[in-house]
Amino acid sequence: MIQVARKVKNFGAFYQRALGFHHDSVRDEPAPYPGVKTEFTKEMRFILPEEVPTIPIYRVLNSQGKVINPDHDPGFEKEDLVEMYKVMVKTSIMDRILYQSQRQGRISFYMTNFGEEATQIGSARALKFKDVVFPQYREAGVFLWRGYTPLECMHQCFGTSKDFGKGKQMPVHYTGAKVNIQAVSSPLGTQIPQAAGYAYALKQRDRDACAVCYFGEGAASEGDCHSAMNMAATLDCPIMFFCRNNGYAISTATKDQYRGDGIASRGIGYGIPAIRFDGNDLFAVYNATKAARKLCVEEQRPVVLEAMTYRVGHHSTSDDSTAYRSVDEVKHWDTVDTPINRIRNYLTGRAWWDETQEKEFRSNARGEILRGFKEAENTKLPNPLLAT
Amino acid sequence: MLCRKLLGRCALRKGEVTLQNVRTAAHFTYLPQTPNPALGDTTKLNMFQSINNAMDIAMEKDSSAVLFGEDVAFGGVFRCSLGLQDKYGSARVFNTPLTEQGIIGFGIGVAAAGTTAIAEIQFADYIFPGFDQLVNEAAKYRYRSGNEYNCGGLTVRAPWGAVGHGALYHSQSPEAFFAHCPGLKVVIPRGPTQAKGLLLSCIRDQNPCIFFEPKILYRIAAEEVPVTDYTIPLSQAEVLREGSDVTMIGWGTVVHVLLEVAQMAHDELGVSCEVIDLQTIMPYDSETIEKSVKKTGKAMVVHEAPLTQGFGAELAARLQEECFLHLEAPIQRVTGWDTPFPYIYEPFYLPDKWRCFDTVKKLVDYM
Predict the structure, then answer these.
(1) Rounded CA gap, A222 and B75, in Å?
(2) Does A84 have pLDDT greater than 50?
(3) The overall pTM is greater than 0.80
(4) Do A165 and B107 touch (CB under 8 A)?
(5) B338 pLDDT exceeds 80?
(6) Is B100 designated active site?
(7) Which residues of chain B are in CATH 3.40.50.970 domains?
(8) CA distance A330 to chain B (A)
C-alpha cells in the first residue's frame, strides 16, 4: 500500500553533490578516522544551510479537505472516521467551555487545543494502546481518544477529590494511567529523555510497543530534547518524537526559535529517520504516524515526526496573543483552513455526515460537557487528612 | 617557620615534610572496621570493589536492573562497574552519550517503566545539568500524579568530596542542594561496608535516591566486608563512638577525621566525644542526634561543603529547636569555606583534625 520512501541508489554521492561537492572531488579514498564513515575530498567547501533543500510537507488532503493524493487515502470506514471527527469536535467544544469557565473565574487556568485536533487524534488513532504516551500539555485530544472523559478532565481542572492526580497540579496537567498516558508536567521538554528511557525499558520486554513523546517546536530547543534524541539514536530506543510545530511558543515565533529547517532536519543530524507532514491533515497525520510506528517497532529505532500546524488559541488563559500576532492571521487558521473543517468537508462529500447530525452532535456534546462541568464544580475537594 | 608548621599540620607523618608527600598524603587515616559476625563470611574489599559487589548482587537478584552512564561499560573511571557488562551483557550495562541531563531523564523514564535504573554521574560536580530532572521531575513524579506513577526504581550514583587534588570540579559535596528538595533521598557512606549495604538499600528503596560515594575512599578504604546480600537501613544514623561531653556529627570522609579528633580529645583534653555518622542526609535520623545532644549539651557538625546553607545549617537549626534547654554552647559548624573548592589551598579549605580539635576546645571552654 503506502511505501515509505526507501533508499535511493547511490544516495550518498547524490547527497554530497546536492551539498555542492564536485563529483570528482569525493570518492578519493575512505578516511580511517573513528569519528565518521566517509571519504576524503580535495574540495574545501562550507555547507551552507540556506543552500540545503528543505524537507517538504507530506499531505493527502488539501486545505479544503479534498483528497489530492488518492493513493494515500487511508480508506477509513465510515464509523471509524466519524468517530475520529467526533472526538476532534468534542475536544474543541470542551476547550471552548473550559476556556470560558476560566474567564468567569470558575477554574484558575486553562490551555486550549484549537487548530491541533488532527495532530492529536490522527496520531493517537495510529498507535496501539500499549504504546506509552509522554505528553507536553497540548494533547487533550490524545487523552480523549484513548477514553479519558471530559468529566475526568474537569475533575482535574477543579482539583476535586475525583481527580486522578489528587488535586496536586494546575488545570490541564492530567495524569492518565487509565489511558497509558504519563502525567503532564510544566517544565518543558523534560518528558523527552524520560520517554527515551521508558522506550528502552519497554524494548526489553515487548518488541511490539513504543513510546510516543509529544512536544512543541519551542520545547524542542530545550537541552533535554537534544540529549534525548542523541541517546535514543545511540541506544536504539523505540521512541517516536512527535513535534507539534504550531508556529509559536507563547509569543515567540519560529523565526526566533530556530534558524535551521525546523525540527525534522535535526533528526537527520542525530542519525534518526525523520518525516514532516501536514498536521492539519488528519489522513497525513494518521499515515505518517502509522508508518513511523512500523519503522520504530520493526527496526527498534527512534523516528522524528514533525507535524506542521497552527496554534489557533492563545498560549493559555494567561496569554493574549493579539499582542504579538495579527487577528487576520489567526482568523485564517480558525475559519479558512482548520483540521475539523477539512474532515467535515470530506465526510459531507461522501454523504457520511450532514448538517443535522452536526447540530445534533454538537448539542449533545455541549450538554454532556456542561453536565459534567456542573458535577465537577460541585464535587468536594480532596481531604488532606485522608491517606488517599 | 609558620609555613613549616602549616605544612606539618597537613602531613600525617611528622618529620620529613616535602611538597610531594604533602600533596599525596590524605588528611585522615582510614581505620578498617570489624565486620558484623552475624553477617557471616567476609572478603577484603576496598570501596569501589564493595560498590561493584553491591551492584552485582542487585543485578543478579533483579533481572530487570540496568546500569548506565558515561564510561561504565569498560568498568568506569573509578572501576565501580568492572566486569559487570561482561556478566550482564550490553543491554543491561551500557555507555550513554555525554549528557547528565539526558542520563538522569532517561533514568527516570526507565524507572517509570518499572525497571530498576542505576544511573552513574561521573563526578558529583557534574550533576547540575541534571538538576531540573532530579528536582522538578524525579522528586515530584509520584506526588504530581497522585501516585499513579513513580520513578522509585531510580538510583543516581556519583563520586563525591575532596580527593586531595580535585579542585573546583572534582571535589564538590553538593548534598545540601538535594536535601532541600522533598521527594529525593540522599545517602553518603563512610566506607566499603556501609557503601555496599547502603547502596543496596538505595537501589531497592522505592524512591529516587542519590548515592554520593567519597572518591578518596575508593582505593584507600579497605576492610573485611561481608560477602552476603545485606542492607543497611536508610534514615538511620550510627553512633560510632559513645561519649558524654561533645556530640560530633559528620558523614562520608569526615567521619574518620572525627574519630581521630575524638581520640585526641580523650588523650590530650580528657574530653569524651560521641561520634555520629549521619549516613542518610535526607530524610535524616533526627532522633539519634537529638538524643546525643541532649546528653552532651555540646554539638558540632562537620562537612566539607561550604559553610553557608550547608547541611550543617539544617542540623544546627533542628538541634537548637529540639535541644535548646540542654545546650551549654552554641552549635558549632566546622566546614569548607564560602569559596569555590581550591586547588593549591585544599589543605586550608578542609575541616581537618586541627580545626575540629580547636572546635572541641571552644565548645568545652564556652561556659
Answers:
(1) 31
(2) yes
(3) yes
(4) no
(5) yes
(6) yes
(7) 37-226
(8) 34
Instruction: Choose among A176, A187, A231: nearest Cβ to B106.
Output: A231
- Percent of chain A clearing pLDDT 90 (strictly above): 88
The residue type found at B269 is L
Predicted confidence (pLDDT) at residue B3 exceeds the cutoff of 90: no
Confidence at B252, pLDDT banded by 50, 70, 90: very high
pLDDT average, residue stretch A360-364 = 98
Three-state secondary structure readout of chain B = CHHHHHHHHHCCCCCCCCHHHHHHCCCCCCCCCCCCHHHCCEEEEEHHHHHHHHHHHHHHHCCCCEEEECCCCCCCCCCCCCCHHHHHCCCCEEECCCCHHHHHHHHHHHHHCCCCEEEECCCHHHCHHHHHHHHHHHHHHHHHCCCCCCCCCEEEEEEECCCCCCHHHCCCCCHHHHHCCCCCEEECCCCHHHHHHHHHHHHHCCCCEEEEEECCHHHHCEEEEECCCCCCCCCCCEEEECCCCEEEEECCCHHHHHHHHHHHHHHHHCCCEEEEECCEEECCCHHHHHHHHHHHCCEEEEEEEECCCCHHHHHHHHHHHHHHHHCCCCCEEEEECCCCCCCCCHHHHCCCHHHHHHHHHHHHHCC
Of A163, A182, A196, nearest to B149 by CB-CB distance is A182
Give the minimum alpha-carbon distance from A306 to chain B in angstroms, rounded to a whole number.
21
CATH 3.40.50.920 in chain B is located at: 2-30+236-365
Contacts of B132 in chain A (CB under 8 A): 187, 190, 224
Active site residue B27: no
Greatest CA span in chain B, whole angstroms? 66
Q: What does CATH list as the number for B2-30+236-365?
A: 3.40.50.920
Query: What does the pLDDT average to over A23-31?
Result: 64
Inspect the interface and report whether the beta carbons of A185 and B140 lie closer than 8 Å: yes
Q: Are strands B117-120 and B66-69 parallel, antiparallel or unpaired?
A: parallel
Give the model confidence (pLDDT) of B189-198 as tens digits: 999 999 999 9
Which pLDDT tens digit goes with each residue over A369-380? 999 999 999 999
**Mean pLDDT within A2-10:** 54
**Cβ <8 Å between B109 and A200:** yes
* pLDDT for residue A387: 61
| Contacts with B107 from chain A: Cβ below 8 Å | 197
- The CATH architecture of the domain made up of B37-226 is 3-Layer(aba) Sandwich (3.40)
Question: Contact B149/A195, CB-based, under 8 Å?
Answer: no
Rounded CA separation A262/A157 (Å): 33
Confidence of residue A10 (pLDDT cuts 50, 70, 90): low
Q: Do B105 and A182 touch (CB under 8 A)?
A: no
Q: What is the mean predicted confidence (pLDDT) over A103-127?
A: 98
* Structure ipTM: 0.95
Q: What is the mean pLDDT of chain A?
A: 94
Q: Which of B170, B213, B223, B290 is catalytic?
A: B170
